[in-house]
Amino acid sequence: DSGVTQTPKHLITATGQRVTLRCSPRSGDLSVYWYQQSLDQGLQFLIQYYNGEERAKGNILERFSAQQFPDLHSELNLSSLELGDSALYFCASSVTDRGLGNTIYFGEGSWLTVV
Amino acid sequence: AQSVSQHNHHVILSEAASLELGCNYSYGGTVNLFWYVQYPGQHLQLLLKYFSGDPLVKGIKGFEAEFIKSKFSFNLRKPSVQWSDTAEYFCAVNDSWGKLQFGAGTQVVVTP
What is the DSSP letter of A55? Predict the structure, then answer.
């Protein structure tokens, strides 16, 4: 158990809908990352937050957004869902926002299936 | 932009065989290197990491990796695999900006 908690674990929804994935980082971690894992794209970095502020953006679609709240939990919002958005979405956390000397721990992921 | 290459996409081997998975990265600056493992249906778990110091690092479950700076490589090894090592293995690089870049992964199947 990494200490990173994600909900829901599984989600099935229809195209065009909107879902919210939630993540609680490890105790003491200020940085939260979101990754998408799909068969064709592999593991793709989406976005990073540190202490409530956006730090880095990766291959995140405009239909997707995220935020980190004062209690440090984070939510990833996926809207106007398409079949291709079906994937495993990982949240990860680390103590700092610095890269070097920083270990990132992953949650169990949220399986999203769009039908 | 930095990239991470894993040489093998699929590896099949028998129990007790030795395993070596290749990983090369392209980045000119200081990097931290990681190997993560994903067992079937599970999340990513950290196997080992290299920040600095001894380039031969030992991780959990009997795995080790060697950082060769001149070759931009960080290969993962295990002298004798078990059936329970069947999993997907990801090499990852973290630079000063904090973004963890993953390789495409290597699916390892260990047959009894």
Answer: E
pLDDT tens for residues B51-79? Answer: 889 999 999 999 999 999 999 999 999 99
pLDDT at A99: 64
CA dihedral of A43, A41, A57, A97, whole degrees rounded to 10:
10
Judged by DSSP in three states, A88 sits in strand
Q: Name which of A2, A48, A105 is nearest B99 (Cβ-Cβ).
A: A48
Q: Residue A96 is encoded by which pair of tokens? A: 């700092």
Dist. CA A27–CA B76, nearest whole Å: 30
Q: What is the mean pLDDT of chain A?
A: 92
Tokens (6 digits) for A70: 């004062």
Contact B102 A42 (CB under 8 A): yes
Contact in structure between B78 and B21 (CB atoms under 8 Å): no
pLDDT at B99 over 90: no
* Inter-chain residue contact A99 with B98, CB threshold 8 Å: yes
> How is chain A split among helix, strand and coil, in percent rounded to 5?
5, 50, 45
Please tell me whether residue B83 adopts helix, strand or coil conformation.
helix
- The distance in angstroms from the start CA to the end CA of chain B is 41
